[in-house]
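just leaving the lab so this will be short. what follows is a protein written twice so to speak, once as letters and once as structure tokens for the fold. can you read through it and tell me how you think this chain folds. thanks a lot i owe you, the record is right below.

___
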Amino acid sequence: MVYEERNTWVGLVVTVIALTTYIVIVLQRAGDGPLTGVEWWPIMLWTILGSIAATVIVSILWGMIAGVRDPAGVGASDDRDRDIARMGGRVGQAFTVIAGLGVIVLCALEADAFWIAHTMFFGFALSAFIGGIASVIAYRRGLV
């Protein structure tokens, strides 16, 4: 597995774990009350910072382990990797745009800040996840 594909897999796993953890914590804090009553922003902030840190740490550790097995190819990247990363980014960007449009609509409807922030938060997460899935598929099946 090449360097870029390894990092894509790390991002996918961390995204799933971070979102699951975030959802569980927010739902637990809400209990039987309304979701909008939860003080969500510190949880969201720590989830974002924690997932960034976890992605960096796991990528470094996995790279070190891979470096023991294949020292010459540990950080190698080629045109195919760049093309796949670009394609995955374009696929993911579509979901960021959709989330942004959702935020505009929610703002126009004067929705609670909870829903506006979560639309963008989950839009970013979905963007990263779907873009990562597209990249992994391209690594496995090739670019068409």
In short: The chain is about 80% helix and 0% strand. Residues 3-141 form one domain.
